[in-house]
Amino acid sequence: QVQLVESGGGLVQPGGSLRLSCAASGFHITPYVMSWYRQAPGKERESVATIPTIGPTGYAESVKGRFTISRDDAKNMVYLQMNNLKSEDTAVYYCVAAKFDKILWGQGTQVTVSA
């Protein structure tokens, strides 16, 4: 079964850190551009970070310097290290795999930043 499964979300205080993981199964991530998206309540879904197989990573301006995306193709995993979290980072975070006209989405993991 082709799927992406996110984990690592939870409740964290402002200034804290979380590491999200995305496990791919049923396909290999190597040919895919891997990304993390998020959707906050009442807001549109937005791209947070992107990592191609080869080439530079990309980040939304709001997370630059705080978030780091990485991938381990041997383990078929993608990660998002989130540091210095802010209340505005509260959202459901989705792992996405994209190749040409094919896009796969995970089910999402909730991240809540609150004191």
| Structural Rg | 13 Å
Overall form:
globular
Main beta sheet, described?
A: 7 strands, mixed
Estimated share of beta-strand residues: over 45%
Helix vs. strand class: mainly beta
- Which regions are unreliable across 5 or more consecutive residues at pLDDT < 50? none
Distance between the termini: 39 Å
What is the mean pLDDT? 97
Helix share bin: under 10%
Topology record:
Layout: E1 3-7, E2 10-12, E3 18-25, E4 33-39, E5 46-51, E6 58-59, E7 67-72, E8 77-82, E9 91-99, E10 102-105, E11 109-113
Parallel strand pairs: 2-11
Antiparallel strand pairs: 1-3, 3-8, 4-5, 4-9, 5-6, 7-8, 9-10, 9-11
Polypeptide structure, described:
The protein is mainly β and 115 residues long. It is built from no helices and 11 strands. The strands form 2 sheets. Strands 2, 4, 5, 6, 9, 10 and 11 form a 7-stranded mixed sheet that branches. The protein is globular. The N and C termini lie far apart (39 Å). 30% of the residues are buried. The model has no long low-confidence stretch (mean pLDDT 97).
